[in-house]
Amino acid sequence: MPHELLTAAEGIQDWLTTQRRTLHMMPELSLHEFKTSEHCANEMSKLGLKVSKLWGEGFVADLDAPNGKGRVALRADMDALPITELNDIPYRSRHDGVAHMCGHDTHMTVLMGAARLLTERKDKLTRSVRFIFQPSEELPPGGAPGMIDKGCLDGVDEVYGLHNYPQIEVGRISTRVGPMTAAADIFEIKLIGRGGHASRPHDTLDPIPAAAELTGMLQTLVARRVQPGKAAVVSVTKLKAGTTHNIIPDEAELMGTVRTYEEPVRALIIAEMERMANAVAAAHGLKLHFHYIRGYDSIINHEAGVSAVARAATEVVGDANVSTDFEQQTWGEDFAYYLQNRPGAFFLLGSGNKAKGITEPVHSARFNVDERCLAIGTAVMSRLALG
């Protein structure tokens, strides 16, 4: 027999689908989630929840349990990506160059669905519930620090979040104890020399050979500086220099990303990158501008939070469809900061369907979800809140 909450969520599937598609057609970029926030806040107000705007377009909606003790928080992110959707669907993005290709429309819908189910079961709540609608997840350092600074976790005992995941079939839930996502950082390096005519390289300080040399060194940094068994990624993703065939440029630029799971490894890589960059610049007689941007920290799930997710998900979709040893992911997410302040966990909601061809990863221009995940996510989040 299906769990009562799943049956209830499936009973509002049409409403959930409408909510998701409405949001999908009106995507807005980070820190510009004006209509998105207004739509979600209006829906929460209709349910009788107290809505409080906190940071940017972010807000919280509180459902108070008459006889409950404590408060649990559930979070959804609201922003879309600067990408043109290529799906040929009736509810395709109406905003050119902006689309919900990460599925935050799904996350908001799940939270609104959970609010609807929990409001109808208010008398069963043993604790109050806070729904966090957060802006700017896609723009480092993310909207989580701003929301936390403005008090979204005040009075909260636990916090939970999810992300849809098309590489997991709909009907499945995955999570893990400890590091789940990577710390996602950015580096920018500029090697500055002296340009001139390409026929007289001896009159110049050519930054291109130095940039090529440094690129090779950075790509082998993990293999030769990070202890085996410690996971890390260093990728040079941009190398820019010069304008034409007969001019040696004044400067060369490198940009890339670093992904780590442990702070000591992160610190080691930062130090080694700067050391290598300085050494190469000095060897070629160049000036160096080294800029390292610490992005999101790694999501570190709490054991008790993972256990709570596993119990809730098992009730909703069955033990065979729940995994608590999902592999660490190399992408970043600012939910990390919530878990640095409160216990809880982050989990992945299966949203793919190979039979229907729904397999494109997040951030793809053809990303989509099997909308059956809306009811499943709603039921799991609701069960978590009920304790």
Q: Write the CATH fold name of the largest domain.
A: Aminopeptidase
The best one-word shape is elongated
Radius of gyration: 24 Å
Corresponding CATH architecture of the largest domain: 3-Layer(aba) Sandwich
Distance between the termini: 21 Å
> Roughly what is the average pLDDT, rounded to an integer?
96
**Class inferred from helices and paired strands:** alpha/beta
Mind summarizing the main beta sheet?
8 strands, mixed
Q: Strand percentage, roughly?
A: 15-25%
Write structural notes for this entry:
The protein has 387 residues and is of the alpha/beta class. The chain folds into two domains: 4-180 and 298-386, Aminopeptidase, CATH 3.40.630.10; 183-296, Alpha-Beta Plaits (2-Layer Sandwich), CATH 3.30.70.360. It is built from eleven helices and 16 strands. The chain has helices at 4-11, 13-25, 34-46, 104-120, 144-149, 207-219, 221-225, 263-283, 303-317, 336-341, 372-386, and strands spanning 50-53, 59-63, 71-77, 128-134, 158-169, 173-174, 178-179, 183-192, 196-197, 232-241, 247-248, 251-260, 287-296, 300-301, 322-323, 344-352. Helix 4 links the parallel strand 3 and strand 4 (128-134). The protein is elongated and about 80 Å long. 48% of the residues are buried. The mean pLDDT is 96.
